[in-house]
């Protein structure tokens, strides 16, 4: 007897919310960087820090998801991913802390930065959930195909 899986998919409204939130977080962070007072070098540093946080967040999300049942990545890879994530956060926080801007401007950048990281994890999860649901659906169709002939 074939195993039958219940495939639960995210709703269209959830996927829309996730993508709108992600794009809004990128826009808010970009807006903050463009209009932040101070030196261009500081703004450039912070933009690089945000990109580092963005990409290291995707790497952490993927590594955690890939290794959730059993470890498939080497421990060196897992350690490198976590070191990059911690370095991205630490260096970006340090850069923002030392910037010579007003407190409310720092607060805006902290909120948009955390919003960016949070929505990065949401996008990674939503995309991966859809991929896994598609895989299960293909497996079910492959199991049903020989028995219907």
Q: How would you summarize the topology of this molecule?
A:
Layout: H1 12-35, H2 40-66, H3 75-98, H4 103-148
Helix pairs in contact: 1-2, 1-4, 2-3, 2-4
- What does the overall shape look like? elongated
Largest sheet: none
User: What share of residues are in beta strands?
Assistant: under 5%
Q: Averaged pLDDT, please? A: 89
Helix content: over 70%
Total count of helical runs of at least 4 residues: 4
Radius of gyration: 20 Å
Q: How far apart are the first and last residues' alpha carbons, in Å? A: 16 Å
Q: Pairing-aware structural class of the strands and helices?
A: mainly alpha
Order of helices and strands: HHHH
Number of strands: 0
Q: Low-confidence runs (pLDDT<50, min 5 residues)?
A: none
Structure explained in plain terms:
By secondary structure, the chain is mostly helical. Helices cover 81% and strands 0% of the residues. It is built from 4 helices and no strands. The longest helix is centred in the C-terminal third of the chain and has 46 residues, at 103-148. The mean pLDDT is 89.
Comma- or semicolon-separated keywords:
149 residues, mainly alpha, 4 helices
Short synopsis of the structure:
The protein is mostly helical and 149 residues long. Helices cover 81% and strands 0% of the residues.
């Amino acid at each position: 007897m074939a195993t039958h899986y219940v495939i639960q998919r995210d709703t269209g409204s959830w996927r829309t919310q996730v993508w709108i939130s992600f794009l809004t977080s990128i826009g808010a962070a970009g807006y903050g960087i463009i209009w932040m007072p101070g030196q261009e070098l500081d703004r450039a540093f912070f933009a690089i820090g945000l990109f580092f946080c963005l990409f290291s967040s995707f790497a952490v999300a993927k590594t955690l998801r890939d290794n959730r049942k059993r470890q498939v990545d080497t421990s060196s890879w897992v350690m490198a991913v976590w070191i990059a994530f911690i370095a991205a956060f630490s260096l970006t926080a340090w850069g923002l802390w030392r910037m010579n801007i007003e407190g409310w401007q720092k607060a805006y950048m902290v909120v948009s930065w955390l919003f960016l990281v949070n929505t990065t994890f949401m996008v990674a999860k939503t995309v991966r959930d859809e991929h896994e649901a598609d895989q299960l659906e293909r497996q079910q169709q492959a199991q049903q195909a020989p028995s219907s002939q």
